[in-house]
Amino acid sequence: MIEKALHGGKSYWTWVSLLATGIGIGLLAYLYQLQEGLWVTGMSRNVSWGFYISQFTFLVGVAASVLMVVLPLYLHNFRAFGPIAVLTQFLAVGVLLMSLLFIFSDVGMPMRILNVPLNPTPWSMLFYDTVFLPGFLVLNLIIGWTVLGAEKRGSRLPVG
Amino acid sequence: MTLSRRKFLKTTAAAALTAMAIPKAGQGFELEGRMSPGPKALKAKRWGMVVDMRRCKDDCAGACIKACHAVHNVPYIPQAEHQVMWLFLEPYENAFPEQSRGLTAGTAIKQKFLLMCNHCEDPPCVRACPTQATFKRQDDGIVMMDYHRCIGCRFCMAACPYGSRSFNFRDPRPFISSINPGYPTRRKGVVEKCNFCQERLEIGQMPACVEVCKEGVLTFRDLRDPDSTVSKILAKHPHMRRKPDLGTGPSVYYVL
Question: How far apart are CA B86 and CA B49, in angstroms?
Answer without folding.
Answer: 14
